[in-house]
Amino acid sequence: MNTWYDENPPVPAPMGVLNWTLAGARFVLISVVISILMGPMLILRWLRYSSASQALVKLACALILCVMGLRVRCIGIPMKMQGGVVANHSSWLDIFVLNAVQQVHFVSKAEVAKWPVIGIIARLVGTIFIERKQSHAAKHRDTFQNRLSVGHRLLFFPEGTSTDGQRVLTFKSTLFAAFFDPSVRKRAWVQCLTVAYVAPPKQDVRYYGWWGDTNFFPHFFNVLGQLKQGRVTVTFHSPVKVADVVDRKALAQMTHATVAAGLTNALDIC
After folding, report:
1. pTM metric for this prediction
2. Is 215 left (phi over 0), alpha (psi -120 to 50) or beta?
3. pLDDT tens by residue, 47-93
4. pLDDT per residue over 88-141, tens digit each?
5. What is the rounded distance in angstroms from the CA atom of residue 256 to the CA atom of residue 207?
6. Domain ranges for the chain
7. How many CB atoms lie within 10 A of CB 8?
8. Where are the alpha helices (DSSP H) in the chain?
């Protein structure tokens, strides 16, 4: 996987005493939300009550965004069919935003599980970790089949990395391969989501983006310390039936075009 870099990352406005006080208070409240809901969530997952567990994940993420003060606007309707959900990837905030607006199971590269903080959060929300190697293709197919058979919707980021939120990188077609297995293709749908962030007042338009070598903790606490947050718009595009698409490359190109057009439109409106 190639990590995306920008030679001129944004420099957030400095934080004062009030900002740090607010960041600390929000951090405590977020910790309380996670502590209260984590136990029931893990128990339900262990008992294989997946839908109930993901409902708690959705509630927890919505509460965390509320504590942060980040406003979320949705356009369109989440699909009810089995299949995949694909979106552009801009920030660690995506985990909370996308879990807050629908019940999904994230699919991520295996190494994310070992990342500090982000790995813990990813495991808590029920992320499915996979090895992105051709030798694991059969295993991925079986995982997708099992998940689809119980009605799960799997969300992944086909860019394979995160950006500054102002662009959509080329989608990697290999991530769509599992959907074209004959037993999966005939019943799977794919829905595109566009996630567009608007920065807080007086901050760089790329403020919420988290990429390259950006250190998590300074970015995390700077976001928590904002007196007035920006907002994020999630656009649900019309679902596509996988059986109607020629192959994985065509699906990758089609979904990329949809997500990219959605981002351009959302940023123009903002």
Report:
1. 0.90
2. beta
3. 878 788 888 989 999 999 999 999 999 999 999 988 899 999 999 99
4. 999 999 999 999 999 888 888 777 777 777 777 788 777 787 776 666 666 766
5. 23
6. 71-214+229-269
7. 8
8. 17-46, 50-68, 93-101, 118-124, 137-149, 182-185, 216-224, 248-269
